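Researcher: Before we compare anything, I want clean individual predictions. No alignment, no superposition, just each chain on its own. First chain goes here; please echo the sequence and then give the structure tokens.
Model: Echoing the first chain and its structure:
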Amino acid sequence: MARPLRIQYPGAYYHITSRGNERKDIYKSQRDREKFLDYLQSATQRYGAVIHCYCLMSNHYHLLMETPEGNLSQVMQHINGSYTTYYNVKRKRSGHLFQGRYHAVLVEANTYALELSRYIHLNPVRAGIAKLPEEHPWSSHSYYINGQATPEWLHTETILAYLSSKESQSRRSYQSFVQDKLGCDYPSPLRAAAAGAILGLDAFIDRVRRKYLTNDHRDRNLPAHRALTRRRTVRQITDAVDSLFEDQNMARKISIHLCHRYSGEGLRSLGDHIGLSESGITQTSRRLGEKATGDEGLEGRLAEVIKKLGLCNV
């Protein structure tokens, strides 16, 4: 498996998930789950990690975690490595417990932390193992809605504060906020992550891209790195196209084609921007590309837009 792109800096938030090797269970007993939570606690004590949400399923887990010290790799080596050692020693086994490397998506907290917490806490309901999220004993949801005996290492205050400055009101509001999606077709907010690596608004993604994407040759060869470095926002692309094409119908088709190719937006997110279905975006983009191949004039105009956007050498 290719090494994933890791963007690390002080104060970064991440949605993290890690799955059992061959999708096998990583917890076989209550003690296993308790031990895993112990490692979450020690990660906060030793490495300064801030755990905002967690949900332990049978063969994977979800975390919403902040790293004030910018040390994601160190924190995750502690959590996954320590738990694997415990699990292997207990069961007299050796080898990998987790399937490849953990998956971490950098998150713009002010925009997505609240939504991601709901997504994490609804995992047991989506999986059909609980009717209500509070019925699942191995997630942080119950601590959010009642606050009783909340572990010192679990930080609920930041997310609850998005709903109200008063604790009792924020807990009631949070319960309603989560229940609002019960029984709904609720797509993962992670689908909107640019290049599967950064979840946030355009300004946040561009700031991270400019400030934190390394030029290390190992990173430059990663698909996510290539996608992010060539990424341009939907607004940047449409503005560039509109400045060069007077025909609005053609400008729209070209914008769709270039956004599909270079924006890094998922189809669902791109469709929300443009007002077109996912299949409509792919079909329009494909047809425009095919037309440009046989039309030297259009091909030249496309090249002009691409050059203006600074995409010609990536």
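Researcher: Okay. Second chain, same rules.
Model: Second chain and its structure:
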Amino acid sequence: MSHLSETQPRAERLLRETGVLCVLTVDSVGQALSCAKALADGGLTAIELTLRTAVALDAIAAIKHDLPQMKIGAGTVLDAAQVQAVEAAGGDFLVSPGTTTALLDAFAASSLPSVPGAATPSELMALHARGFHVAKWFPAAMLGGVATLRALQGPLPRMKLCANGGIDASSAADYLALPNVLCVGGSWMVPKDWLVAGDWDKVRAAAKDAAGIAGACRR
């Protein structure tokens, strides 16, 4: 059974309200909680926590427990087993770097909003044919950035995108000014050395700047 008629509008609304989505990879649950609190204090409302470390699912559950107001999704979702694991952990949404038929089936069957990854016009068209109108466009900077997204708007106006990959504080607003971009994703507010050092004041300040960008560009 497909839930896309209900979950895709939720995905669009979540990304539009988020504006700037922090993409976070953590080494411990404690690190995840401290970072999430700093991001929330700075004014960001959503985190894409990647499933790249062994603690990721526990971190998602812990953030959701301690910061229920924060939307906490899973990134780097690659297969149906991970979809089910994120649901069990209490995650709010799902993001993938690309797609397979099996993964799209799992996204369609999930009650969670999903943002499948795509890079080319053909991939975006294939997603739309499956019932997805929200996608992650990745890796954005390597694909031509703002100029390419502007070119995609004409032939694919129904696709709404979260641009991710190579975006930072200096370029985020240019992406968000485009009508087909709901949101930008990035890790510039959570560089690895800040996390290792526990420099949460820097994270908080960068999050405040990012939230300011999102607020100024919100449509």
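Researcher: What stands out in the second chain?
Model: Residues 25 and 132 are 26 Å apart (CA to CA). Additionally, The chain has a mean pLDDT of 97.
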